Amino acid sequence: MSHPIVRPARADEYDEIARVWMESWVSTGLAEASNFLLANLRARVRREIEDGWTLFAADDNGTIAAMLALHLPKLYLDQLFVAPAYQGRSLGRQLLAFTRAQMPDEICLRCVRENKKAWRWYEREGFVFEKEDISPVTGFTMKCYRWRRQNFAL
User: Fold this and answer.
1) How far apart are alpha carbons 96 and 81 in whole angstroms?
2) pLDDT band at 150 (very low <50, low <70, confident <90, very high)
3) Which CATH number does the domain housing residue 93 bear?
């Protein structure tokens, strides 16, 4: 089985990317799917791109398998969500490797505290917990992480 190709997202895909985001978020058990949530995520994709996101899609022969949102000037991995049908296939690792190619020296991210599966995965991938704070966008308590390339001096 081939891996999906990670590429820049196109504007005509933003609604589908928001749907993948919602389905993946719902798969954590922290939310329920709804038209309201989908509409909010669709609006947020566009707003975040205006605010500096670089948005990527994992394309599996025309099917959006995952979304990745980076804020490159801030060295920030903002969102990484894999569609439920693609979870458990190492696509998250592929997206993280892609992220490290974009930001080879340092990456910051935040993860919802209750999403233990996600933050434990980031810890296994070498991210170091720094602190907790509250997201001004969602109100969730977030665990803040940082990864630095070995032997990289700031």
Assistant:
1) 11
2) confident
3) 3.40.630.30
